[in-house]
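protien #1 (seq + structre)
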Amino acid sequence: MRVLVVEDRRETAAFIRKALQAEGFAVDVLNDGDLVLAAVEHTPFDAVVLDVMLPGRDGLSIVRQMRERKLATPVLLLTARGALSERVEGLNAGADDYLPKPFALEELIARVHALCRRQTGSPAVVLKVADLSLNTLTREARRGETPLELAPREYLLLEYLMRSAGRVCSRMAIVEKVWDYDFDPGTNLVDVYIKRLRKKIDPEDRPKLLHTVRGSGYVLKESA
């Protein structure tokens, strides 16, 4: 599951990110409200943790515009203002849940899990490329009728490639999305995991789906 955390206090954002990552979530962080709509439109997040008070566009206007644009990603609003009228305003704007500050990280994690579970009816739960399928709820992968045993990081890599099917993913993009590093670790980390994944999803008796684009990265697609 991928979560977007929007919080202008960098220390708070770092705490939330670390806590969610410990629960197995992939986490992106933004500190400016003006960047949120573009991020949600271009990345299939499973949930957004959104502070109300932000530089640029505030949280309430972000939620309203998300709903106006038919973006149904679940939103958990965070705010230091805990009055009933303000909570109602947030929910009426289109938020799915509301958590006043200060909050316990355990409660935030539980609420994010609950929001993600509500997405079980989404048609995007099962990702497919040719006869390769990935159920993002059960984390079950199959090539045809054959189940694939994936380590946790292999699963995250496959999910990212399948969500980006047909587009070339650079090594740096993979490092950012799968390992949540915002820097190049200077190792062959990506190449090693690509090799492991390719061995599992591309058996010799099946058409190859995971392709290397020399000098650019990797792409998951049916062969031309």
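ok now protien #2
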Amino acid sequence: MLNLLVVIILSYLVGSIPTALIVSKVVKGIDIREHGSGNMGGSNVFRVMGWKYGVLVIILDALKGALAVIIVARLYLGNFPFNNVTPFDDFTLIQIIAGLSAVIGHIWTAFAGFRGGKGIATALGFLVTIITIDMLFALGVFLIVVYISRYISLGSISAAVSVPLIMIIRENIFHVDIQGYHTILPFSIVLAFLVMYTHRANLSRLFNGSENRISFSKKNK
């Protein structure tokens, strides 16, 4: 049990690394939380500092989730402390727990007053190691929605909601055997609601038409 707790804490700390804050400080000498929406995520960096730094932060945030799953989870030794009733082996279940801990760390980072980003990129980095095909489809949804609407928040929400829908379609219509489907599906639904919760202010602005659109111009370098 102590070993599992160590993995959870370390994964949380990895997820807590404030990449947007670090990049904004190093590159521009600013605190990203004092600009734009005040959010410490890739989308706000995208708006304030330009697409190159926004993409850099998104990649770094995704790597946090992947790092927790691929490396930190391997620090777990021994058998799972509880009865594992999921279709996954014990190590895969540890990876899911580590990935979720990293997402929580990103949203409520210990290194920046528990005020972090919205968890999309970190969740992408963690889930792509578990349900790769479904996440690639969801990434496609994100890119299409952002390209058409110019709203990163709408793309993020659409991608999160699309994950359980894609799984349901692949499993039940195309009869693809998705490993751990009955475990991952409810988990992905909960994660989608978590994403909508962290984007609640964006949803409000989308509904009243005041959400900021992004630009792919070169004005921010």
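The chain has a mean pLDDT of 90.
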